[in-house]
Amino acid sequence: MEFARLAHTFEELEQTSSRLTLIELLTQLFRSIEQPEEIEQVCYLVQGRVAPFFVALEMGMAEKSVTKSLAMASHTTPEQNDPERDQFVTVTKIGTGLSDEQWRSIRERTKGLEVDHRPARVSSLIEPSVWVEPQLVLEVLADEITRSPTHTAGKVGGEPGYALRFPRLVSFRERDKKPEDATTVQELIELYNSQGK
């Protein structure tokens, strides 16, 4: 990428306060990158950096604007480019209330998925009886969503995460859902907020 093109884009970014215009300008910038290895350097520069975090220069560019611009440039969605989407978090435990038939079904469906350690893509503060690779999708019904220090869904720093209260297994959804199609943390937070508490 030519430095003049980059400098011109930064000048245009400084002259606008419209978020939509910022996103459009960044989208055009990312689309103009011809060498894939340049994307990382341009991302650093857009964030006001010339290298990783140890050399900081604040430009005031919101992370969501950069994420949305990258998504538009690559014809994807921001969620598909969000590194946090590549992690599974805990939101509940289901152990009681299952029939013998449901337990047998769970054992059968998880056969071959058991591992002796927490899978790399799983964030959990809970130590289950058995770890399994995140390959099954369960539909769960609950009475409400509450804040919980035990679960990692939406947990940031010392703040509690979110949890399903009084969960019940409804069905297995592996025929029509992949694990990546499960409810996102953002969707869970929106459901929590819609409860009106």
What would you note in describing this structure?
The chain is built from 7 helices and 8 strands, in the order H-H-H-H-H-E-H-E-E-E-E-E-E-E-H. The chain is of the alpha+beta class. It has 2 domains: 3-81, no CATH class; 85-194, OB fold (Dihydrolipoamide Acetyltransferase, E2P), CATH 2.40.50. A two-stranded parallel ribbon has the order 1-3. It is elongated and about 70 Å long.
Tags for this model:
197 residues; two-stranded antiparallel sheet; alpha+beta; single chain; OB fold (Dihydrolipoamide Acetyltransferase, E2P); two-stranded parallel ribbon
Topology:
Elements: H1 3-14, H2 19-31, H3 38-46, H4 63-73, H5 78-81, E1 88-89, H6 100-110, E2 114-115, E3 122-123, E4 131-132, E5 138-141, E6 144-148, E7 161-165, E8 168-172, H7 185-194
Parallel strand pairs: 1-3
Antiparallel strand pairs: 2-4, 5-8, 6-7
Helix pairs in contact: 1-2, 2-4
